[in-house]
Amino acid sequence: MIALAENRYGKSRVRLVQVKRRGDRNDFREWTVEILFTGDFASCFVEGDNRNILPTDTMKNTVYSLARESSQTCLEEFGQELADFFLDHNPQLSSTQVSISEKSWEHLLVEGKPHPTTFVQSSSELQTSETSRARDGASSVWSGLDNLVIMKTAGSEFAGFLKDSLTTLPEAADRLLGTALRARWKYSTMDVSFRTLRKSIRQILLGVFAEHISKSVQHTLYAMGEVVLQQIPEVDEIELNMPNRHCLLVDLSRFGQDNPNEIFVPVDEPHGYIEARIRRQD
Amino acid sequence: MIALAENRYGKSRVRLVQVKRRGDRNDFREWTVEILFTGDFASCFVEGDNRNILPTDTMKNTVYSLARESSQTCLEEFGQELADFFLDHNPQLSSTQVSISEKSWEHLLVEGKPHPTTFVQSSSELQTSETSRARDGASSVWSGLDNLVIMKTAGSEFAGFLKDSLTTLPEAADRLLGTALRARWKYSTMDVSFRTLRKSIRQILLGVFAEHISKSVQHTLYAMGEVVLQQIPEVDEIELNMPNRHCLLVDLSRFGQDNPNEIFVPVDEPHGYIEARIRRQD
Amino acid sequence: MIALAENRYGKSRVRLVQVKRRGDRNDFREWTVEILFTGDFASCFVEGDNRNILPTDTMKNTVYSLARESSQTCLEEFGQELADFFLDHNPQLSSTQVSISEKSWEHLLVEGKPHPTTFVQSSSELQTSETSRARDGASSVWSGLDNLVIMKTAGSEFAGFLKDSLTTLPEAADRLLGTALRARWKYSTMDVSFRTLRKSIRQILLGVFAEHISKSVQHTLYAMGEVVLQQIPEVDEIELNMPNRHCLLVDLSRFGQDNPNEIFVPVDEPHGYIEARIRRQD
Amino acid sequence: MIALAENRYGKSRVRLVQVKRRGDRNDFREWTVEILFTGDFASCFVEGDNRNILPTDTMKNTVYSLARESSQTCLEEFGQELADFFLDHNPQLSSTQVSISEKSWEHLLVEGKPHPTTFVQSSSELQTSETSRARDGASSVWSGLDNLVIMKTAGSEFAGFLKDSLTTLPEAADRLLGTALRARWKYSTMDVSFRTLRKSIRQILLGVFAEHISKSVQHTLYAMGEVVLQQIPEVDEIELNMPNRHCLLVDLSRFGQDNPNEIFVPVDEPHGYIEARIRRQD
Fold this sequence. Notes:
The structure is a homotetramer. Chain A is of the alpha+beta class.
């Protein structure tokens, strides 16, 4: 017999700009929202019966309508509000997942002072969150960040590794280590200040990255996650993804020149892939 | 206590072009390979001990070296060969996963005939495979395709859906249905002709997409997967992902014109998201 | 004194899907239109006087409204219709330029036959056109194509080149030659069958690329353009852009293996850049 | 007769990372270089004679070799050095053009202080330069920036514009104005501090953008360029490109809600296109 197993449907890339007008000073936020529904939708898939299908266009409308009413200004709280709304209004759902990412916009500095109504996209880093709510009460909030592009020019080696007959990589006592960090962490409770903790966790991740004496990407990745768990008791587990974006030392000896670790070719592909999940354990 | 949970490392985007020179006629293939290792790498992550770490650069070298020796010409078989090689030569691994995608290149037609040594990239569709091998013997092969961009201009409706106070979507008796299909299916055995089955499954997916009287994307997605499972006994399960790439009917009544389902704006975002897994069940 | 020199404004990326419903069989086209206006807009730039500024939103509306009325099915003719419309209705313009690109969609083959209402995006190649109309009567039509990705695995060498102290490239008697062709050609008259000529020119470009015994990208580029001008008297000049997308031979001797021109790494960057304009001369 | 008209060849996307190691503190730069050669290359194009063709691979090597020797740290000066080198060593050239773009990397702040050897990619803005040198002595330096993404949430209207029968855009007394600024400016002399002037010009562009009471994108673009020319005598002309990246006000009245200019949908396409060149005039 053939049967439907897991299935999900929803709306991706619902884009939202919000301007809060507070006297002379504005706030500006740009979010991209994804909503996914899970439930017993077999009759839709198998028979084409749409009676339980809320259109994805309605999901999009809901994002805009709730954004107008909501007083929430952080991703996690608006994500929860959306997830609650969908679950409350749609008995056909068993669970819903809301993912929101926020672009980095800041007040433009004009003569050293933040301009009240002008903004600049300050990096390509994204702040992210994923809220899952289930009908039976289980729920979770993950917060994270994506595409945080960082580079160490000191304090990174890669040596003592396994060598086989196809290994040509030389050991490196002092190499560049660059990555585009993606991280997400799970809170043990909803009762936290998401904004404050996000800021602290981001600082920890960056601080450890900067200070760590790195034996490998894995080694630094683990150290970053470990300190987050040590210092932030509200975080249960953390996932880190750190592609190794190689900078290759250029061989200038062909031209009678030395290259004392100064001239590199950055390459996008191939790249190393390193990911791990680190968690508290009893 | 803080501990390492899941972790993986490897090399992504290893690109390979192979030219087989057979007399006057050449074969041309372009593959992109990703290799991921799983094992007990805690000492590397936690202590910076690299003795069990085969460099990802070596994984890259291995792809090229094995490609030279191998007589395999299909993704799945070369993927198995790579996975076997890594598992055999690296006792520290518990499992390895090899993913390969192939670009669409065809002999260029010159005056109606395939030119023996000139090729054209015939679409942005990718053929894909993922081979997982575990030390304890468990293994699996998934084959698939990605970014197959297709469109129905008839035989698609979306009506009878759930409406709430935020629903503004009109019912559509005759809408455009476009998607960028991603599919992957799992074989129950390695002892199949991957190339022949891939071709058959692709034809089934496209044939059902074309002929189906669609009540929704979900409805068509399920029908496509169901027929694959009905006709191809070697396939155990199939996953389909069909984003709904909307084409919006332009309101020309503002200009005193009708629009009998002829003039549309295609939009990339937001888009619907529909995915399901369909499998055999006892 | 400070003054406004050249200036242009308009609308980019106006996307249009057209479905022509002819009994059981449909036609499907996807175009992206750009419209640029030139004229005396100094008062707008300098003083903020918008009285001569037709909104770019109106340009977009015009594309959809004219598409509904038009019987034109080829890029060049619809481009002329748009350009004429804007020039006729906007005395403030000195000239207008309309660029249209068309995606490659074809009827899906089902059991070997074109399905009447299902389509597949058959490649990432674009067909292009640029129509310029000036108030004083001067006008031009360029047609072209973009992102036609092609590869020669034989008949291409690169040798006998200039060598200086920084040259390390070995001479190659038999290298891969791949490119993403962009071409555009100018017609000497509007009174041609754009569709027929486009097809012929595309076939000439591809045929010469396939058959040419190439001494360099430049050599093949010129040969391609030359034959177009020789065989198509309606074309005045042709511009060709052929980035050299390198496939680097992998050095397998490090592993005790030979590599008889079979195993390559394709790289996206850096790439060679070769462009030329070829024209008739008295 | 058929003849070669304009032609150029060279190397694109030569990527370079430079680390200057100054005691405990490092400098880090990431540049992408493009080199184009112009000269009498007809024999290469027409006859396949490569004797005057310096391989583009050699151009790439030259970038790395000169970067090692050079003490230049700003784009414009290294661009001149490269252009001079190629022109001096290659009598077959009539001119050469070197374009360099620099990614935005900054020292990472750790506990409020710049970390000496850790860097963060601080935005997706690029700093650019284009140096052209001709054999006969003519030369020019353009500096610029690209992809500077900025947004005004106040001080921008668009009203009083031309309306025709296809105009549906409402007048806006208070709209969002967002763009991805691309600018380049030409210096009247080489004898300037490129780094200081770049900083000043960037500040002027941003300051005017922030403070301008905008009647249109054109109006603000002109004001930005005008102030640069007024305040920086070393700049002869400036070109500005400011696509209008629309944020559309969401119609919430369908849901019984108002929208006092707070909830918007940002859209990537279509977008307005506005460009102008502003220059000194006698």
